[in-house]
Automatic annotation (TrEMBL), chains A, B:
GO molecular function: DNA-binding transcription factor activity; transcription cis-regulatory region binding; zinc ion binding
GO annotation, cellular component aspect: cytosol
GO aspect biological process, one term: regulation of secondary metabolite biosynthetic process
Protein name per UniProt: Fur family zinc uptake transcriptional regulator
Superkingdom field: Bacteria
Similarity section: Belongs to the Fur family.
The UniProt record lists the keyword Calcium: no
InterPro entries on file: FUR, Fur_C, WH-like_DNA-bd_sf, WH_DNA-bd_sf
Cofactor notes: Binds 1 zinc ion per subunit.
Species name: Rhizobium wenxiniae
Lineage: Bacteria, Pseudomonadati, Pseudomonadota, Alphaproteobacteria, Hyphomicrobiales
Amino acid sequence: MNAPIVSPALTKNQALVFDALNRAEGPMSAYTILDKLRDHGFRAPLQVYRALDKLTEFGMVHRLESLNAFVACAHREHECCGGAQGHGHGTVAFAICESCNQVMEFHDHKVDHQLGDWAKSKGFKPSKTTIEIRGLCEKCAA
Amino acid sequence: MNAPIVSPALTKNQALVFDALNRAEGPMSAYTILDKLRDHGFRAPLQVYRALDKLTEFGMVHRLESLNAFVACAHREHECCGGAQGHGHGTVAFAICESCNQVMEFHDHKVDHQLGDWAKSKGFKPSKTTIEIRGLCEKCAA
DNA sequence: TTAGAGATGTAATGTTATTACATCAATTGC
DNA sequence: GCAATTGATGTAATAACATTACATCTCTAA
Ligand SMILES: [Zn+2]
Ligand SMILES: [Zn+2]
Ligand SMILES: [Zn+2]
Ligand SMILES: [Zn+2]
């Protein structure tokens, strides 16, 4: 099954974590989230990790592998390139500014299809694809 | 400066780590490498991390972000898509089998250029790009 | 010969993630 | 109503990954 099109009802902990990520300006580590939620009763890492697992499964949150951190989903496109991954669309990519920590989430058909073609040609069956560009955003590169 | 075309002379520790990675069938974590090299005098994680840093800088080793692990470079292509990254070629991508842990390293012009175009259009200056496809290799998917 | 740069050794610490086990709450079937 | 199941939660302990700090050591260039 793919992730549901409509966001599922969140549990209390999931809602707290999702809210924290939405308020944040950039990605946060699980332990940073934990610290932000201590006032709301969070005491242990597992409370955060469990919520993040579900939110990721729902496609509402993405994990940035090169940062060991998490961001709320920011994609604004229609469903496309439907596949086994993500929010019912194809692979998501991220551009991460190493100066201001801003993250841009985007989806690129051509990249997605090209990687899909490569996989097909090799008989490789993708389950999850990570694309992360580290560098400097326009503002910070100036 | 880009990485040198010719591999530089390696220090003793760098050579030991590189050799361990080349002998390995798949990616290894820094601590796994440490354990393999205890007989050769390695005692602390930092000895491994320092060597890995240099080898990565030389383009002889790649870090797999989604695994927190390292592989010896396996690319066999000519220099192309020259850029600020890697061994004098463009971005490298990896397909990682979650069943047998085999890793395929490849370079795809179209993907590279497409991501480069996206960056250009946004004024983003890439320093390092990570592309990792997790899934099942042909053999394991059968 | 001495000052600087780079490599090394070691210990301690910091950061990220998981395992194990107990408990609680909502749902289902009887 | 009342077990049985399922999923969410709480807590502690531990595992896995990575860095900081500091002391040597070696080579080389002035
Ligand atoms: Zn998204
Ligand atoms: Zn920036
Ligand atoms: Zn390579
Ligand atoms: Zn396989």
